Amino acid sequence: MAKAVTSGPMEIIRTDCLVIGSGLAGAAYALEAARAGLQVQLLSLGGPNDANSDWAQGGIIYDTEIETSLLAKDIMEASDHTANPAAVAQLVEEGPAAVRELLLEGSKVGFDRRDDGSLEFTREGGHSARRIIHARDLTGHAILSAVTSRVDANPAISRQVGAVAIDLLTLSHNTDSAEDRYAPLTCFGAYVLPAGSDQPVAVVARKTVLATGGLGHIYQHSTNYPGTVGHGVAMAYRVGARLIDLEYVQFHPTVFYGKNAPRFLITEAIRGEGAELVNVNGERFMDKVHPRGSLAPRDIVSRAVHSELAGSGEPCAYLDLSALDKDYLCERFPSVYQRCLEHGVDITRDPIPVVPAAHYSCGGVHADLEGRTNILHLNAIGETACTGLHGANRLASTSLLECLVSARFAALADAKEIAAMDFKLPDPRPWQSPREESDPTLVAQDLNLVQQTMWNYAGIVRSPRRLTRARRILLEAREEIQSFYRDCRVTRELVELRNAVQTALLVVHAASLNPRSKGAHFVVDE
Ligand code: SIN
What we know:
The chain has three domains: 13-248 and 362-420, FAD/NAD(P)-binding domain (3-Layer(bba) Sandwich), CATH 3.50.50.60; 252-358, Flavocytochrome C3, Chain A, domain 1; 440-513, Up-down Bundle (Methane Monooxygenase Hydroxylase, Chain G, domain 1), CATH 1.20.58. The protein has 16 helices and 19 strands. The chain has helices at residues 24-35, 52-55, 71-78, 85-106, 139-152, 171-174, 178-181, 231-238, 269-272, 298-312, 326-332, 334-342, 399-419, 440-457, 464-487, 492-513, and strands spanning 5-6, 12-20, 40-44, 60-61, 121-122, 132-133, 157-161, 164-170, 187-193, 201-210, 243-244, 249-256, 276-278, 317-320, 352-361, 364-366, 378-380, 385-386, 433-434. The radius of gyration is 23 Å and the shape is globular. It binds succinic acid. Succinic acid (SIN) binds next to loops. The site of succinic acid has 9 residues, from loops.
């Protein structure tokens, strides 16, 4: 039975660029676009710093030896030789200027320095050299805070805090003109739910940029910021965007484990400085697995931890820190020290209990090297996008750098295109709100079901049978969730659930279609 709906005049905000997501990719795009003279509406799901980028601990690659650098080789090797060489070349060649101009000179980020004032470099898994700059173990926070204060001081950028994008607007789906229906797939903004409101508005834009981060929270255990469920992937899918490589979900091997404690990241840089992965008996099991031992590429380490735990029945592995000086540990890794202490582990004395957790989506919305998707005027940048840079497995500390480079190239291309554009922005159809309220208990329970299904059947080790099971459960859940969605007033929790189940199905579908184990996608035949 059709539910009663209300529809009335809808607020319409018009802008040059709508940026959905304000982590490092979205914030950097906003800055570059504003610098090029464009007006920007920037949507933050939470507060300005509530994003995955803020939680990045390890660092950002700053390798100025472009000619002789082995960086391209390391990215290729980490990806199991599946990365896109053009995307790798762009990152290697353009990365240093982006870091210098945006972070070192433009935002004066306080990276750690040696006594002589030069930058201090660390290393992480899969790197053949020390080429990662950092701000102790709070690198993402230092970078995003510095960029955010510039964003918020820029009058051309208008930030909507706590706003969630519901659906993209396209000519084919959201106008009343019959002619528009047959036009090429073209995006012109999004329906957005402002903070504290149940009345969506339309943000109509010449360019719409998906910068919603990853999808870690479709899994039960994740290093990601809460609410990171592949919003961009799900919205893009619904309007016909090309998605690629979604089976390659990277699991981080070292996430804190405690019986009643939350999971949180223990940066790979700690292994870069000498910590070793050991089992409950103190044995260094990585030495048998890879010549780089605990510093092997991440997919290999995560699988090794998983198989060690499956074999022993133990709940976790450990990071042995005995080779590191205690004062140095506390000084260099203050947030790891503090958070472990809060959960009963003193890292100056004890090894850190660790398990793997979902960390990064190597796949996403297919984008070219200037952020364009197959939908006209819709861009994807940062983790939401997939240019093929990471192939089947990402090299550590490439993600913040990718945010800067992809944001810069997309914004510059958009500025040129907007200047030459004669596309008249249409009025979208008003939003129709059903009257029923959603039941928060059902919404939370359904999200739990999605996360558990993904963790149990589409995690580090997959099999055709597990994936088939996941698909069946998720298809049924999607039916149920779609019916809520049709009948109930929209809330941010409902938007999150709808996108989570859609993204989960897309990951499972991609994994089911790919029988070949590569990088982060590992399939067994049982
Ligand atoms: C870490 O600090 O281990 C995470 C860095 C990354 O994912 O690149």
